[in-house]
Amino acid sequence: MGDPLVSFTEEKLSDFHTGKMTDAYLYFGSHIHQDVTYFAVWAPDVKNVSVIVADSQDLNERQYRMAPHPLDPTIWEVRVGEDLTGFVYEYEIETAQGELIRKTDPFARANEKRPQHRSIVAGNSQHVWSEEVLQKKKRIVKNHFEKPMAIYEVHIGTWKRNKEGNFLTYRELAGELIPYVKKQGFTHIEMLPVTEHPLDESWGYQTTGFFAPTSRYGTVDDLKYFISKCAESGIGLISDWVPGHFCVDRHALASFNGSLLYEEQRPERRSNPDWGTLNFDIQKGEVVSFILSSAHYWFEEYKFDGCRMDALVNLLFIPNRPERPHNEEGADFLRKLTASLRSHYPEAMLIAEDAWHFPKVTGTIEEGGIGFDYKWNFGWMNDTQSYLKTPFLERREAHRKLNFAMVYYYEEKFISTFSHDEVIPEKGSLLGKMWGTTEEKFAQLRLLLGFWMAFPGKKLLFMGQEFGQVAPWDFQPELDWHLFDFKAHREMASFTKEVLSFYKKERALFELDYDRKGFEWLDADNSEQGVLSFIRRGHLAEDTCIVICNFSERPYEAFQIGLPANGFYQQIFSTASGDAEKSGGSKDAKLQAQPIPWKKQPYSMEMELPAFTVSIWKLKQDGSVEA
Predict the structure, then answer these.
(1) Is-contact 497 183, C-beta < 8 A?
(2) With contact defined as beta carbons under 8 Å apart, do 25 and 71 qualify?
């Protein structure tokens, strides 16, 4: 940036106060310019502000009195005649009541590692984004609606630890996480928040540093190195970011100037007791500029390919009201946020976490929508898991849970999600949710991932579920990698790899995810046999896939399935295990359609269908029965 002392213009100040500023991080916080360190902070209605600086080694504090900006008395600034890169600092604020309080910098680009919390003068980044990386990132996000997307959701602090039991650094993760994700076949990584936070057990969602990557895993440049390596490997990277609420810790944003500044003014909407956080005052222009600038910062500075926004329930619906009335203030704020990001980063993926019923979350702003690209499909996720937890003899009555999602599916652009929230101790791992014996649980986990792959929508799976993690995710030191010593878990990991490889090759499974032409029921209501069957289509007719999902513990020797066209059909995928294949689930089975109408289709065939199996068939274009 240029000389910071002259960077605040009247226009920029107006933008800041009216909620239009998207690059406030260039003006506030600490910045190095020609061996001068500049500090600026927004602190209205206070008597005085100083910055307290210390060398991180000797901790001898120095205090520099700040002065109101000549054009704006709510902004305090000071320039110190030396390069303070690496020094720690806090603002000491004398409130209107005369109390002295210390605060970390809201715009700090680095903070101390917990339990310490002071801000760090980050200096200027040394990382240079190569043209190769930037071009690969463009290819990753281009036309993403019609490309395969299988997201590996990961909490990098508990995915794996080093030999000493400590966190892997961003650079170490580049050497371990990226090859693992690539080998398993995922197309994207979504990281639980890497914004700074004081409590490990909050998973990063109780944010204190909206511009600072957490120091738990390294420096700013270390994170950029990891991001570059993801791009070089062709892996998309999605940030998890919290736009609506912030941590209550007193050293951060809470009561920043001794009174309510960043937090919601109305008591009934202010706090989130379940989360231990405070809601932002989105009616205040300066706060809106702060949030907009944070969102822009992560795209501009770190080149993320997408952003998943957490906990939109308190923006789309009025907080702390059990009847959940729509929150039009919050909806308008989110429209402003998505429109602003879309104007600067048009191909970036914007993903909403909204578990409720606000309309058109993924609709365009022009049509009255909120402007997101995707929304997590909580309904499908909960219904499918609920069905698979149901005892076998009771599943006939629960069959509606398997097909109900298609009633509302085309109202939004959904991601089929099995997220971290679904494998916490209160809920158990995916494998642990399955009803039945251990062998039946593994068969149903293969069935679940096969159904997940074949069902419309992009995909997300939380770490550990790909190899059948037994225990729930309980913020333990790392995943249970020792399970790879057992054949069943090694085979589960290999199966996940096979599922994702198949998914990425079959265009019918992703090209028309959000087009009604891409899906057709063959039989949605076969509750007696516990079978779902449907068609998935791509742009080309020859890519059409027939999907049969047997959710029952019973195998069928002569299961009849309706077909839309005559000819020979070949089974191209099956989730059946080796033993099931021997009894009729062979992955290279071939059958000829018969001119026998069935379930409103002009043709049909009979097939052997093992228990707990997804079977996918394709019409052979040459009409032959040979492979």
Answers:
(1) yes
(2) no
Concatenated DSSP letters of 275-308: TTEEEB-TTSHHHHHHHHHHHHHHHHHH--SEEE
How far apart are the C-alpha atoms of 163 and 154, rounded to whole Å? 20
Residue 411 annotated as catalytic: no
**Are 54 and 102 a contacting pair, CB within 8 Å?**
no
The Cα 491–Cα 498 span in angstroms is 10
- Give the mean model confidence (pLDDT) for residues 28-51: 96
* Count of CA atoms in the C-beta half-sphere (13 A) of 68: 11
Task: For residue 353, indicate whether it is catalytic.
Answer: yes
Q: According to the model, what pLDDT value does residue 624 have?
A: 46
φ/ψ bin of 184: left (φ > 0), alpha (ψ from -120 to 50), beta (otherwise): alpha
Selecting among 353, 383, 466, 506, the annotated active-site residue is 353
Contacts of 347 (CB under 8 A, 6+ apart): 138, 141, 142, 144
> What is the tens place of the pLDDT at every residue in 380-405?
999 999 999 999 999 999 999 999 99
Q: What distance in Å separates the CA atoms of residue 266 and residue 270, rounded to the nearest whole number?
A: 6
Q: Are 314 and 275 in contact (CB under 8 A)?
A: no
- Pairing outcome for strands 150-154 and 188-191: parallel
168: burial class by Cβ within 10 Å (0-12, 13-18, 19+)? buried
Answer for the pair 504, 150: CB distance below 8 angstroms, yes or no.
yes
Q: Which two tokens stand for residue 554?
A: 């019973």
Query: What's the order of all strands across the beta sheet hosting 271-272?
Result: 245-247, 277-279, 271-272
Nearest to 354 by CA among 398, 278, 415: 415
**For helices 220-232 and 131-141, angle between their N-to-C axes, nearest 10 degrees:** 60
Is-contact 213 194, C-beta < 8 A? yes
- Single out the catalytic residue among 90, 310, 412, 608: 310
CA 347, CA 279: separation in Å to the nearest integer?
A: 29
Q: Please give the structure tokens belonging to residue 282.
A: 């989105």
d(CA 277, CA 208): 10
Q: Would you say 410 and 514 are in contact if contact means Cβ atoms under 8 Å apart? A: yes
Angle between helices 220-232 and 170-184 (to 10 degrees): 20
Tens digit of each residue's pLDDT (9 = 90 or more) over 131-160: 999 999 999 999 999 999 999 999 999 999
